């Protein structure tokens, strides 16, 4: 048996022993997702047991080095773990912006002390992070952001407003883009980390069309951010005024995450499931649409696998996450249009026990954000045109 | 196995790209033979050269004198064939017929494989009996006759049919037209008495034949695999053909896309390069995304086929359908974005459109394969 086969059989046995049956059910609502953090609560014992087993094994962040709370798995081992988890439909033990976004940026740009502190906190689900990028006047044109940090020697005084800050009201800390030089658009932004309980930080939830309120307006009113925490840990990632490099790098990971490249629900075929659920043969034209969708979904699943394989060995075009995000999110929107169409009037139920709290229409509406959050589809196409196709003036 | 080419495969890709870009180029092959009205639609000298490169025996086991490689490698050659619109009997001979012969006995392999390896022989595969791909319906009949069989019926649009030295024919030896079982595959030599060809030139300048069989006598040695048990062999041949055609389709898509993106960087209107217009940039970027995804689906299908995986046939249909979608988009956008010049015979972009149309039908189009994906998934 090869080392990898050995690893697969060990992983299979470990999952069998540690992943409770409840954690192999599809995620139905937000409470089924464990986000960690100071304010976190578990929905049930199974969720807690599964999270703790993974945390202790380093499986909340399997590919991170062990000194930062990961399991230090090689790319091939991480792929095996992903395959084995998806085989039993295991839920992700911990979801977090720390894992998907800040972590990769720290691994690339952080000081050793920052990595030791923040990555371990993220891996153990102790601190929940939110992302302070967008502002009312700066969405797609993010680099025009205005939130300003005035240099006061050993600290900054930050003033301004962020918007669409996902889970700002539930997060413990924020990674935040702050202008520190008004005279340099690109080299005048600092990537700051600070506690959401710092005086002067306030949040105001925004209700979405899905009826849920996962994001907020975030206000900074004379917020004092020290330049160093404790034993000389800088409050910024990368250099002062060079936060745009970190911000862009992080966006690559965010886009990769939103793209659904790692498989699961987002890339599965749906025709058979929807037809079975309908209980009767579907309209032949709808069936044809489902078949065309399944072709695209299964092809995209292969793309996701290829993309991740290539990323691991540095073969992927650096701008490829933009293509993945574009294709993956447009596909996911189509998926939910078809789920609604196949569900008919039953998929419209917003408030009823049958519909498990409007899961279908809420999920459908939520997917409309996929091609907006983390950079819109139009912006992704702009980036592909410029960086991959190298078209003029893009 | 990671979903990208390993070092050996990457080297083969370089070799194939260079060879096809030089020897198989549009001006040298497709236009040359088309303008001559060549009866075969391809050049035998190039086929010989492909043999010297080892390409013709890429799927033939080493024990039989071939390279013993897999569908990933065959696909590498096919992608370059697609990019350069190189007319050749590679797909029908070295991929489909070679797959069939791989299931044949020692005598059959000894009789036909040396010619393939040397680039002296051309093979075709005759399955369909109508204008749309439908391997579930086979009426062409082979009845027992002495020690062999007597073949009657017809086959339509057999690519390279009239040029072929041997044609793999799927015929019915028992049951009725649409039965899954009762199929037998035969290796029919070109000089078989009673076989008639009506050869037609298709839109892409390739040649296809309507073949009639009138009491064609075949000896028992002509049977590939088991009598009445040919469906399993046929399915292998079909999957090889689907995945192969999909790889060529990705090549057509990439060739067309590259040419178009280049054009966007050269043509000026309204005082600007037309590639500066966002309306075109977004469409080109969307096209890129579709072509990349099709390519991933094709490599996945090739790897599954090489591994003999259970879901290989499903993925073969996904690959053929997705490659068809991507190539169809690439050629349509290609002609449109070239404006008036895209409509001219002198310019190559239209040749991509024509090849895509023919390749779309070959071994089943997008609709056929999407339908098959639905059926195999259980709806
Ligand atoms: C559910 C959700 C969660 C989010 N979470 C966060 C978060 O946690 N933190 C955070 O900082 N932000 C978050 N965002 C914000 C998100 O990043 C922005 O919404 C996004 O970048 C788009 O900015 P905008 O909303 O200002 O739209 P705009 O930039 O105003 O865009 C409006 C329209 O114009 C188009 N457009 C803009 N520029 C161009 C161009 N150059 N070419 C062509 N078309 C163009 C866009 O594609 C879009 O269709 C979230 C958004 C959503 C929907
Ligand atoms: C069959 C045929 C018959 C014709 N007959 C005649 C005739 O009898 N008399 C005559 O005078 N002309 C004729 N034409 C020419 C025809 O009018 C032009 O081909 C047409 O106006 C396009 O110009 P172009 O070919 O230079 O393409 P281009 O203008 O170079 O366009 C190339 C591509 O760029 C796109 N593009 C250009 N500008 C923009 C922009 N601002 N924004 C976004 N996209 C842009 C175009 O849509 C196209 O996709 C004929 C053309 C054809 C194909």
Key terms for this structure?
heterodimer; A: 394 residues; alpha+beta; Butyryl-Coa Dehydrogenase, subunit A, domain 1; Butyryl-CoA Dehydrogenase, subunit A, domain 2; Butyryl-CoA Dehydrogenase, subunit A, domain 3; four-stranded mixed beta sheet; four-stranded antiparallel beta sheet; globular; B: 379 residues; 3 domains; 10 strands; 50% helix; binds flavin-adenine dinucleotide; FAD (chain B); Acyl-CoA_Oxase/DH_mid-dom_sf (chain B); flavoprotein (chain B); Acyl-CoA dehydrogenase family protein (chain B); Acyl-CoA_Oxase/DH_mid-dom (chain B)
Intertermini distance of chain B: 31 Å
By CATH, the superfamily of the largest domain in chain B comes out as Butyryl-CoA Dehydrogenase, subunit A, domain 3
Structural class of chain A: alpha+beta
Work out the helix count of chain B: 11
Return the structural class of chain B: alpha+beta
Give the tally of structural domains of chain B: 3
CATH topology label of the largest domain in chain B: Butyryl-CoA Dehydrogenase, subunit A, domain 3
| Proportion in β-strands of chain B | 15-25%
From the N-terminal CA to the C-terminal CA of chain A, the straight-line distance is: 52 Å
Output the CATH class name of the largest domain in chain A: Mainly Alpha
Summarize the structure.
The complex is a heterodimer of chains A (394) and B (379). With 394 residues, chain A is of the alpha+beta class. Chain A contains eleven helices and ten strands.
Characterization of the model:
- The complex is a heterodimer of chains A (394) and B (379).
- By secondary structure, chain A is of the alpha+beta class.
- Chain A folds into three domains: 3-95, Butyryl-Coa Dehydrogenase, subunit A, domain 1 (Orthogonal Bundle); 129-242, Butyryl-CoA Dehydrogenase, subunit A, domain 2 (Beta Barrel), CATH 2.40.110.10; 260-388, Butyryl-CoA Dehydrogenase, subunit A, domain 3, CATH 1.20.140.
- Chain A contains eleven helices and ten strands.
- Chain A has a four-stranded mixed β-sheet with strand order 1-4-5-10. Chain A has a four-stranded antiparallel β-sheet with strand order 2-3-7-6, with no helix packed on it.
- Chain B has helices spanning 7-22, 30-36, 44-52, 71-84, 90-102, 106-118, 230-264, 278-307, 312-337, 349-361, 366-377, and strands spanning 123-126, 141-145, 148-159, 166-172, 183-189, 195-201, 207-218, 223-224, 268-269, 272-273.
- Chain B is 50% helix and 16% strand.
- Chain A binds chain B through residues 269, 271-272, 274-276, 282, 287-288, 290-292, 294-296, 298-300, 302-303, 305-307, 309-310, 312-313, 315, 323, 326-327, 378, 380-382, 384-385, 388-394, and chain B through 2-4, 261, 264-265, 272-273, 275-276, 278, 281-282, 284-286, 288-290, 292-294, 296-297, 299-300, 314-315, 317-319, 321-322, 325, 366-367, 369-371, 373-374, 377-379.
- The complex binds flavin-adenine dinucleotide (2 copies).
- Chain B: InterPro entries: Acyl-CoA_Oxase/DH_mid-dom, Acyl-CoA_Oxase/DH_mid-dom_sf, AcylCo_DH-like_C, AcylCo_DH/oxidase_C, AcylCoA_DH/ox_N, AcylCoA_DH/ox_N_sf, AcylCoA_DH/oxidase_NM_dom_sf.
- Chain B: Belongs to the acyl-CoA dehydrogenase family.
- Chain B: Residues 7-120 form the Acyl-CoA dehydrogenase/oxidase N-terminal domain.
């Amino acid at each position: 048996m090869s080392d990898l086969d050995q690893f697969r059989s060990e992983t299979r046995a470990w999952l069998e022993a540690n992943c409770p049956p409840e954690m192999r059910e599809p995620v139905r609502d937000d409470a089924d997702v464990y986000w960690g953090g100071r304010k976190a609560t578990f929905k049930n014992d199974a969720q807690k047991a599964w999270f703790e087993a993974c945390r202790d094994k380093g499986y909340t962040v399997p590919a991170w080095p062990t000194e930062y709370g990961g399991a230090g798995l090689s790319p091939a081992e991480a792929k095996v773990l992903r395959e084995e988890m998806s085989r039993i439909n295991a839920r992700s033990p911990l979801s977090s912006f720390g894992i998907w976004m800040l972590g990769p940026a720290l691994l690339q740009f952080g000081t050793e002390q920052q990595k030791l502190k923040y990555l371990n906190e993220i891996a153990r689900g102790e601190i929940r992070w939110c992302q302070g990028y967008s502002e009312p006047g700066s969405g797609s044109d993010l680099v025009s952001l205005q939130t300003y940090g005035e240099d006061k020697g050993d600290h900054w005084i930050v003033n301004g407003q962020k918007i669409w800050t996902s889970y700002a009201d539930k997060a413990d800390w924020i990674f935040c883009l702050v202008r520190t030089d008004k005279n340099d658009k690109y080299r005048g932004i600092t990537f700051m980390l600070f506690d959401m309980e710092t005086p002067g930080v306030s949040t105001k939830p925004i209700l979405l069309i899905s009826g849920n309120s996962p994001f907020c307006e975030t206000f900074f009113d004379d917020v004092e951010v020290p330049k160093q925490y404790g034993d000389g840990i800088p409050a910024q990632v990368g250099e002062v005024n060079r936060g745009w490099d970190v911000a862009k790098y992080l966006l690559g990971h965010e886009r990769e995450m939103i793209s659904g490249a790692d498989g699961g629900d987002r890339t599965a075929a749906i025709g058979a499931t929807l037809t079975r659920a309908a209980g009767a043969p579907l309209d032949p034209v709808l069936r044809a649409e489902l078949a065309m969708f399944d072709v695209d979904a299964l092809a995209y699943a292969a793309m996701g696998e290829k993309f991740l394989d290539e990323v691991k060995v540095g073969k992927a075009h650096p701008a490829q996450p933009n293509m993945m995000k574009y294709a993956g999110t447009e596909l996911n929107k189509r998926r939910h249009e078809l789920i609604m169409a196949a569900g008919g009037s039953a998929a419209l139920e917003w408030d009823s026990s049958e519909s498990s709290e409007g899961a279908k229409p809420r999920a459908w509406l939520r997917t409309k954000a996929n091609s907006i959050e983390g950079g819109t589809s139009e912006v992704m196409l702009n980036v592909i045109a410029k960086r991959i196709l190298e078209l003029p003036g893009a | 196995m990671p979903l990208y080419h390993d070092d050996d495969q990457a080297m083969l890709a370089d070799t194939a790209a260079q060879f096809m870009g030089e020897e198989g180029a549009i001006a040298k092959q497709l236009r040359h033979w088309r303008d001559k009205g060549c009866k075969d639609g391809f050049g035998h000298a190039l086929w010989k050269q492909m043999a010297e490169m080892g390409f013709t025996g890429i799927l033939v086991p080493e024990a039989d004198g071939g390279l013993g490689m897999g569908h990933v490698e065959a696909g590498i050659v096919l992608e370059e064939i697609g990019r350069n619109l190189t007319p050749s009997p590679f797909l029908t001979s070295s991929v489909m017929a070679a797959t069939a012969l791989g299931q044949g006995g020692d005598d059959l392999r000894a009789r036909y494989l040396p010619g393939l390896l040397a680039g002296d022989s051309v093979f075709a595969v005759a399955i369909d009996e109508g204008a749309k791909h439908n391997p579930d319906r086979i009426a062409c009949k082979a009845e027992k006759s002495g020690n062999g069989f007597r073949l009657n019926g017809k086959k339509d649009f057999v690519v390279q049919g009239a040029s072929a030295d041997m044609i793999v024919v799927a015929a019915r030896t028992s049951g009725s037209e649409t039965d899954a079982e009762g199929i037998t595959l035969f290796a029919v030599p070109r000089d078989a008495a009673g076989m008639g060809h009506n050869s037609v030139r298709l839109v892409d300048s390739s040649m296809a034949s309507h073949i009639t069989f009138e009491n064609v006598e075949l000896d028992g040695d002509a049977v590939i695999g088991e009598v009445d048990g040919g469906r399993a062999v046929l399915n292998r041949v079909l999957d090889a053909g689907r995945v192969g055609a999909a790889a060529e389709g990705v090549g057509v898509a990439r060739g067309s896309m590259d040419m178009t993106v280049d054009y966007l960087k050269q043509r000026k209107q309204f005082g600007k390069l037309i590639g500066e217009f966002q309306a075109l940039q977004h469409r080109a970027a969307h096209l890129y995304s579709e072509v990349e995804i099709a390519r991933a689906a094709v490599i996945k299908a090739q790897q599954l086929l090489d591994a003999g995986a259970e879901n290989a046939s499903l993925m073969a249909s996904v690959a053929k359908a997705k490659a068809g979608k991507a190539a169809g988009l690439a050629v349509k956008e290609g002609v449109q974005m070239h404006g008036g010049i895209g409509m001219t015979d002198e310019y190559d972009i239209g040749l991509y459109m024509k090849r895509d149309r023919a390749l779309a039908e070959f071994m089943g189009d997008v609709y056929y394969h999407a339908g098959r994906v639905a059926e195999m998934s259980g709806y």
